[in-house]
Amino acid sequence: MLEEITSKTIFFKLADVDDAEFILELRTNATYNKHLSITKASLTDQMNWLKDYKLREKDNKEYYFIIYRKDSNEKIGTVRLYDFIDDKNSFCWGSWILNERKTASSALESALLVYKVGFYSLGFEQSHFDVRKDNDKVIAFHKKMGAVETSKNDVDVFFNYTKEKFEERIVSFKKYLG
């Protein structure tokens, strides 16, 4: 079901405990982490978190992906699908980080792949997610994709994005899906 997740310039693989050092480097890098929740800067803690995550993955409660470049198989980022709400048929996504080695279109491609996985592989009808209020570029990106702002608080802006809206937008982005 989640084996072949690929687009024009990137692909996803499920994270494993062996990815702890890469994930920790991303999450503790000041260039990438200013809009993320705080992470304990310990490799052991990250490995333990991933061990627990693998149990949630096995129960189909969460999926954490490493994002790779297709041209070099180099790890360039992460993204996570979680907080599955069955009665709302909705999933959340986040932990979206891309490093300086990303491809020119990897942000768009990784978002498109997240929605393909959530809507088609997992069968959800909508996605709910939050973005830090000061993360203007990501807020603008989601709005351009057609996400609807549902609320905000002192820290975050909350969004909803439907499968129907994705299917309207995907026509414009087919070339990025390979």
Automatic annotation (TrEMBL):
Gene Ontology MF term list: acyltransferase activity, transferring groups other than amino-acyl groups
Residue stretches making up the N-acetyltransferase domain: 16-147
Swiss-Prot/TrEMBL keywords: Transferase
Transferase keyword on record: yes
Secretion signal span: none
Any one Pfam family match given in the protein's UniProt record, by short name: Acetyltransf_3
Domain of life: Bacteria
InterPro entries: Acyl_CoA_acyltransferase, GNAT_dom
Descriptive protein name: N-acetyltransferase
Organism, as annotated: Enterobacter huaxiensis
